[in-house]
Please model this.
Amino acid sequence: MSKRKPLIAGNWKMNLDKLTGKKLVEDLANANIDYKKVDVLVAPSSILIQPALCSLSKIKNSIIVAAQNISHEEKGAFTGETSAAMVAASGAKYTLIGHSERRQLYVDTDQLINLKVKKALEHNLSVILCVGETLWDREASAAVETVLAQVGKGLKDIKSLTKIVLAYEPVWAIGTGVTASPKDAQNMHKAIREYVAKIRGKAVADKLRILYGGSVTPINAKELLSQKDIDGALVGGASLKSEDFLKIINFDKK
Ligand code: PGA
Model:
């Protein structure tokens, strides 16, 4: 088990609505979670951030609310975008950046992702920076190289990593029901941590949380999360049902 406090993050993607989102956060907030042992985060679509926070404010809990994406621009004529300032003002404390769906469907390049990370930090938002190789990269034996390049480019010129969490999500494992084996996931996490140690020093790398994502379920969570360099999970499908998500949150309970 790692010495870093695990973070279990739920990425709702473009799912749920005001009512079902409210029910889900209420179920989580009412559950018995030991927040001394685990951090819990939900990332609803931006329009559901405030309703989620409003529901959470009525129950004692320490659930963190995040956005799924922000614009790299400060403000202006960018139809359909949401700024970091707007996300921060809505009460969210984190944002995901560089999720593979953004990289693949909306052409979020490494350069754009780096600008988004900087913009988030400017507005005091913590960041879950997502990286991960495609099946093509893996079959070409380029998985590690691809992922480390994404980490290096995503973190370029970012002075402090105290508000950064990384999430390793192999693209071929997202939403497919196929997970990286705990051993393969651990190997990649170790490679990422060693790379961060090389570019930022061992002390920074030792503190950095690196989450695993890609078809995490209540069944495979414990083994994945018991790996030395895996410090939590970024969960898609299984975060939409409170029962499943709570089992993942409580992975450490006997
Ligand atoms: P999944 O999604 O758990 O449904 O595979 C993970 C993610 O996209 O963050």
